[in-house]
Amino acid sequence: PDAVTLSGTVRTLMPEMRDMAEARIGEIATGVAMAMGAKATLRYHRGYPVTINHEPETEFALDIMRKVAGDHAVSDAFPPAMGAEDFSYMLESRPGSFVFIGNGNTANLHNSAYDFNDEVIPFGISYWVTLAETALAA
């Protein structure tokens, strides 16, 4: 063929790795094209940034969760995730924390078998109200 288009997604857990990935993809594409007597053009679009929580705000959020649900129901042992999240833009501008509220034993979000557990709604409401009241009282 006269032209080939390749596309893909790059997700990283560290912002500096985004720079490296973009540079390396360009270098590799150029090198492979040259080796084949062709030319490569890279159009690289950066999507959502890495979601990075700020430690003080995360500790504050965890304290509120423990007040609302009890120590036994709160875990901070969540492994890094490669999801794309628009809240990342907020965390680039302001300190904060992206947290999850458990939903019980169901399929993951974005799965056709997912079933939202309405019984967790009061915990979510209580979390946000307690967080706002505590932050505003400080």
Automatic annotation (TrEMBL):
Q: Where is the signal peptide?
A: none
Please provide an example of a Pfam family that matches this protein in its UniProt record.
Peptidase_M20
Q: Which keywords does the record carry?
A: Hydrolase
Q: Which InterPro entries match?
A: Amidohydrolase (IPR017439), Bact_exopeptidase_dim_dom (IPR036264), Peptidase_M20 (IPR002933)
A GO molecular function held by the record: hydrolase activity
What name has this protein been given in UniProt?
Answer: M20/M25/M40 family metallo-hydrolase
